[in-house]
Design goal:
The chain is 29% helix and 10% strand. GO terms for molecular function: carbohydrate binding; chitinase activity.
Length: 562
Amino acid sequence: MKRSGFSRKKLVQGLLLPGLLFSASALASYPQYNTESVYTGGEYVVFEGHIYKARWWTQGDTPDKSEPYGVWEYIGPKDDTDPEPDPEPDPEPDPEPEPDPEPIPGDPYPGQWPEYKEGSVYTAGDKVRHEGKVYEAQWWTKNEAPDSDASTGVWKYLGEAEPPTDPNPIPEPNPGNGIIGQNPDGSYIMSKSFLDGREAELTDSPEFREALASIATRDNTTVEAISPGAASNPDNVKRVEALISPAKWDTLFPERNAAYTYTNFLKAVGKFKGFCATYSDNRATQSNDICAKSLAVMFAHFTQETGAHNPYSPNPEWKQGLFFVRESGCSSDASSCGYNSECDADNWQTEVWPCGTDDGGQYVKYFGRGAKQLSYHYNYGPFSDFIFNDVTVLLNDPDRVAESWLNLASAVFFFVYPQPPKPSMLHVIDGTWQPSPSDISEKRVPGFGVTTMIINGGIECTQDTEKPQSVNRIKYYRGHAEALDVPIPADEQLGCAGIKAFNADSASFGLYWENDWGYNKDNPGGKSFACKVISNYQTAHSTLKKGDYTKCVQKYYGVTVE
């Protein structure tokens, strides 16, 4: 790898011409901008009647005076006055010439400026090398060498020839931007410790720490060891066992599919350290109450999603939850539900969460499975990444969500995971989320109703009257709350009619990394070589997954990391 370990010499001070001292007639003689030409820092051009100066090497970047921080510095309007004709030389010139520097034998740095060539035409601003020195033409000239005894003064001596300037220089190590070198292909090398530190800095807030704590997980080996009544069960599992026994599980879900076992339920709880956890702040004494209410809310929602909804059943509808483990009418048969038409799309979602295929080469089907009825590859992929740290596990085998403890873990996952600008349902229930003035004015306040808005607000909420689905959820919540001894305050907002969608003014934080399009004059090409936090749309990189900041920078800037 090519490394930066040296500093390049600059031209002597005589080369740094103060642009403000140029006369209008001199400026008027600069060449017209050509989109095919290469320009280096300091070169002037005329474009659409205005004069610009290149800040650094460029080709194809059109001058634009509305971009003050771009590659072209706007100098001013072109003076269209025709320059006066060159005067006839004095027959007996008696100027005070500048003393010539000591000659340099040979020319050690060919290629930076073109060698002066007799017979060529040069215009104002053209620079040439001649016998180891650099000269600049002050006006049009031909067949007058820079060191001619009969000089008219057309050539201005700038200094000794220096090593050529690389249009893509190897950057010096810069602790301010993390760039530590350059690869042979021209891409840059960035410091891993710098990127890790930047990620930590941008996510150092109470909101991020609370979110990370609520989605913390245990390894799958520990989860698989969970069983009813085991002394080794994690504390949050023991709390749930105290609230819901195997017999009560049977009572709450008498019509459930056989895949929804009590053991799978405990494993789903045990995967997530923050669900039904013991709080360490002023909510510590409320830990059991928060757990019970969380269960009542979660049970109500997946009863709506997976319930039998059978009016002829001997059981009330709130007890008909978990009837479906796979979406009704869907199977892996070729003629069945698809949920895979998005797999052919050429976008970042299919790049990050590539669809799996069956033995016949057809895309597998991502129809609803589990208590949350997880659907579509762009939901299976993130869930797989969260559970296995590998997006392909469930993308290749989505039916694991139906057949294992993942059938209930998917519901817990969506209960604890935020979807900015929407908070997580857990943070609504435990009081972590506090509505902003905008939230309050648009009816987004703590209570069961806003959890419906989080789950399916676009379909069930925002209208003036309560939709049937929302009415069902309220009924199921009341049933499960009573069964778990959860009081429902008289002023709790249970419905979601009239609630406006969450927006950028909601009390939330940014869940995703996006390219920082800002300009940085000290970086190569003026680019930021950074990513920023956003909350109003989804990207491939999550602020809650360590290392995704680095992946974001790599994606947009093609850097390698060391």
